Amino acid sequence: MDDKVDFTKGSIIGKMTKFMLPILGALILQSMYGAVDLLIVGRFGTTSGISGVGTGSGVMNLVTIMTSGFTTAITVLMGTYIGANEEKRLGKLIGNSVAFFAVVSVALSVLLFLFAKPLAILMQAPEDALDLTVDYIRICGLGFTFICFYNFISAVFRGLGDSKTPLLFVGIACIINIIGDYVLVAKLGLNVKGAAIATVFAQAVSVLFSVVFIRRRTLPFKLTRHDISFGIEIAKFVKIGVPLALQDTLTNLSFLALNAFVNRLGLDASCGYGVANRITSFVLLIPIALIQSMAPFVSQNVGAGKEKRARQGMLTGMMLGLGIGIFAGLFSFFRGDLLATIFTEDKAVITCAAEYLQGFAAEAIVTAFLFSFLGYFNGHRKSLFVMIQGLIQTFAVRLPLSYIMSIYTFRGLTGIGLAAPAATTVGIVMCFCYYMRLQKK
């Protein structure tokens, strides 16, 4: 391997930072998809459109995350093969993955289109925003294959130690999405439908560009048509990916349930939560970048038999996340209203968003610890524990606390926002206990 993709030697913080920064850049641009949709609909559309985009994108995020556990598993397997100098196995792994995601993405597209309205009703979308929510889910659902394959292709490059190429792909998509939103929503007045069409079209262009790019690039593995089949590698990454997908899905279901709890409080609360969610998606970018960087780093070192270096990588990730998380958390707590004004001028919506951010702010700090632990465990293929702790967080802490706070509102939405850091803190305790158990073994 070239030294730039070899995590088994050299400066840990240097290698990790160099790899993580492009991932962070890609995540920032990817988060701008929903943020730009919400911003332009909020400025040039309707108030009910804000709720439609917020609730609809929540459903789409859930479905996307259902597949992300499998892409993470592919990244882990690739890192293990590379660390063990078994690159020849990569072609079959990638080919089997293409066949798997082709079937899964088409099936999910059909389900999203057919069940868009029941999903919107289940989310308790406000009556004024119900049809808009359905439109958003259906249009994005039709283009879900593009969304799925973008995430898969990005995971393949991360598994190879290349985090810069996915940044290029998402940069192209983001530019197209911004232009599309402005033309379709601001100029043509298509409101939520325009935002959804722009998002799907941008993802489609990004995937097509990435395919052309891959065909012209020399890759460290050989992929044949025979490899694109339902082979043994599917069983391997599915075994790792199912617990991750289940954990991520149930965790995000809890956030959708939280969205439903908030929707019962009225249109202003629904819109405020939608705006706050866009802000929190940016606040959590560092922890998300950490977990995506940690898995290939740890898996390569585990494959090479360098367990001590894998542990050092986890601790380095925690310190990196903590330094930035403190700043992001404090700013969210004290100036959440300022952040909300980026998306809307409605004072009631701004107040609701700021209230939620005050409760959520601590999540920016504690998530850096949790996600570093989870990236470390994923790199060791301990996805079953990752799933278990996620389920406990979701059903023992986040959902009950969110529901209670939605009934006995504490400073508006502040109490509901507190459910996230409370659940994460419980997850950290479980992860530390499990980590100590592994060290004794």
Fold topology:
Elements: H1 12-44, H2 47-83, H3 90-114, H4 116-122, H5 130-142, H6 144-159, H7 164-187, H8 191-215, H9 232-263, H10 267-283, H11 285-303, H12 307-340, H13 347-360, H14 363-379, H15 383-407, H16 414-440
Helix pairs in contact: 1-2, 1-7, 1-8, 1-10, 1-11, 2-3, 2-5, 2-6, 2-8, 2-9, 2-10, 2-11, 3-5, 3-6, 4-5, 5-8, 6-8, 7-8, 9-15, 10-12, 10-13, 11-12, 11-14, 12-13, 12-14, 13-16, 14-16, 15-16
Question: What is shown here, in short?
Answer:
With 441 residues, this protein is an all-alpha fold.
Structural description of this entry:
There is one protein chain. This protein is 83% helix and 0% strand. It is an all-alpha fold and 441 residues long. α2 (47-83) runs parallel beside α11 and α10 crosses α13 (347-360). The radius of gyration is 21 Å and the shape is globular. The two termini are 31 Å apart.
Index terms:
16 helices, 0% strand
Order of helices and strands: HHHHHHHHHHHHHHHH
Overall pLDDT: 82
Broad shape: globular
Category from helices, strands and their pairing: mainly alpha
